[in-house]
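Q: I have 206 residues here and want to know how they pack in 3D. Can you give me a structure?
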Amino acid sequence: MQALLKFSRGVDWINTQVGKYVIWLILGSTVISAVNAVVRKVFNTSSNAFLEVQWYLFAASFLLAAGYTLLQGEHVKVDVLSSRLSKRKQIWIDIFGFACFLTPMSLAVLWLGVPFFWQAFQTGEMSSNAGGLIRWPVYLMMPLGFGLLLLQGWSELIKRIAFLQGLIEDPTAKKMEKTAEEDLAEAIRNLAEASKGNSKKNTPDA
């Protein structure tokens, strides 16, 4: 079990790192969308490439962050009944869900998604829209996202079994940590302060 817990900690670390950086894709998608809207209104022109890249970024953020979302316990749960059960029964429900639903679904998507991506990669499939982008990068997000989700599902399964054995604390308890949004805001603030400091250094003295 200790080896499995070590594997679980490794998966948790990977998805934590992914969650920290994927949020920049949402920012990028938002900025591109805003610029595209301004250009369309002001200059009465647009580009399918700009439209598609924001879709690509949003799809990548949604899929790649699925494992991180599961790690944080932020997936939607219908807990009208389970909330009234004991903690051990809730853990058993989670174990059943990870083993019998999440794992088969993720494996099925990988089974179908990898050949789908590989075919598009080999053929260099392009968007059917005029000026559109190559398709395989966004197709790649599907197996990558579900691969990370599958690994995180196994990590959560391991942690719940370990909890039932009394080896670790409750893995479903919320931990007071900075969110990915807070990390992003702090990173942007640090960049702004660094830029301000550099501009002051480059300003000649009067």
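Q: Anything worth noting?
A: The CA atoms of residues 119 and 125 lie 8 Å apart. The radius of gyration is 22 Å.
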